[in-house]
């Protein structure tokens, strides 16, 4: 099993540009999560999907952020326009949704720097 | 009140020491809990699950105190390789959401 795959691993972009982060969850997992991690705020849940449907996007900071999951094997997180304060590590995680035995498996993250 | 709270540390301990971290949670209905380990510039990975009163795996022991709503992680005979950030995790209702603590940083020194 390849695990959760994220791309790109690193992204440096100029303020105002559009950024798209990609995630391929583990096959068979029902839930997918997007997290953002910074030194100041730790790990923050941005949005999660269950069976490709967005369930809770209350963590999405503002309208500049959007996420989609067009099918069970792919999700994107888009920031448009990007700002320097968006600089962080963005993690995608998936889980098999097995009740209390469920754990979340993380991808290696995308380190985003907005200059 | 945050769903999960942890002491950020850092905890600086010598090799061989025993160290313990606590984590408090706000939802009294929570049934299961997790400890994740995160190495510098890496993704979090599951260390232990806690479903009842506790769980033990080698040098690591996780305990749950439902009355006081906290879980603890005890590491015995610390190794240099134990240096990492330890994240306390509490699933949400229906286990479809995971609330992470801010993490406790452990530095094990020779």
Broad shape of chain A: globular
What characterizes the major β-sheet of chain A?
Answer: 7 strands, mixed
Helix amount of chain A: under 10%
Coarse morphology of chain B: globular
Q: What's the alpha carbon Rg of chain B, rounded to whole Å? A: 13 Å
Distance between the termini of chain A: 36 Å
- Number of helix segments of chain B? 0
The helical percent of chain B reads under 10%
Subunit organisation of the chains: heterodimer
Helix/strand order of chain B, N-terminal first = EEEEEEEEEEE
Strand content bin of chain A: over 45%
User: What average pLDDT do the residues of chain A reach?
Assistant: 92
Q: What percent of residues of chain B are in strands?
A: over 45%
Point out poorly predicted stretches of chain B. Answer: none
Radius of gyration of chain A: 13 Å
The ordered H/E elements of chain A are EEEEEEEEEEE
Largest interface: A-B, 26 and 22 residues
Distance between the termini of chain B: 38 Å
Largest sheet descriptor of chain B: 6 strands, mixed
Structural class of chain A: mainly beta
Number of helices of chain A: 0
